[in-house]
Amino acid sequence: MADHKHDPRLTPARPDLAAKYLEGRVSAARFVEGEVFELSYGVTAMRREPFSGAMQETEALKGERVTIYDRTDEGWAWGQLADDGYVGWLPDIALYRPAAEPTHKVTALRTFAFPGPSIKLPPAETLPLGARLAVVREDAGFAVTQEGWHVPRQHVAALDVVETDFVSVAERFVGTPYLWGGRSSLGIDCSGLVQTALAACGVKAPRDSDMQEAALGHIVPLTEQTRLQRGDLLFWKGHVAIARDADSIVHANAYHMATAIEPMREAITRIAASGSPLTTIKRLG
Question: What angle do CA 7, 13, 78 make, to 5 degrees?
C-alpha cells in the first residue's frame, strides 16, 4: 500500500501489486512494468473501485494515454493517466493500443464525430474540449481521424495552438452541470474546470484542488486591501474558484449544481458560513 509519503491518488501501488518504477519506494507483493494504452471514448470515467457503481475519481478524455498495471476478468483495467498522474479503474473496452500520435485537439466546448462527411449522419461519438485526435486528412470541411471519424474542421486545431485567456475558457462552461470528478461540458467539478481551462492555454495543472493550491502560482496575501486580478485562483478546503475580475468569480460548485458566475464577496461569505473559510489566493505567472 502507498505509505503516508505517497499520495494514493497519484501512486499506482496496492499491497498485491505496484508499478515497477515504485520498486524500493513502496511495499507490494510484486512489481509490473505496465502497458501503455490510449482512451478511445470521448469521455471515460475513472473509478475508485472496479465496478460501474463505484465513485468517479476523475475522467479520461479521448486520446489520453494511460499505463495499465492490472486487469480483471470482469473487464476493468487499473492504471495511471500520463497527463496528471491520476490512478484508478477504467473499463477495458475504452482502451486500445496507441497507433498514430495525436496531431489535433478539440477546441469547441464539445463536438460530434461523424462516421462520414455529412452532418446528417448519426454521430459516432461526442468529443469534449481537449480531446486529442490523430487527423490524417481533410474532407469537405471535416478533419478525418485515423478511425475514419469526420469532425467539423472549425472545432479542432493543431496541438500547439493554445488559447491566451483561461478565464474565458472557464466562462464557456457556465451552466454545465456539476459532476464530481467531471472534466467535460457534460459535467465538471471545481478543479476539473481549472485543469481543463488551463490545459486549453497550454498549462498543465494537477487534478484536485489541494494539489492545485500547492503547485500553481504564488500566494497573494489575504488582507482587506487585497484586490483580485483576472485569473487569480481562490482556494477553500476542497474547493477552488477563478477570479474574473476584482469582484466576481466563476466556479463549478455544488451550491448551484453548475458552473456559475457570482459576486466574489457573496461567495466567500456563503462558503465561510458553511464552515469553510477562504484559505489561499494564488496568482499565476
Answer: 105
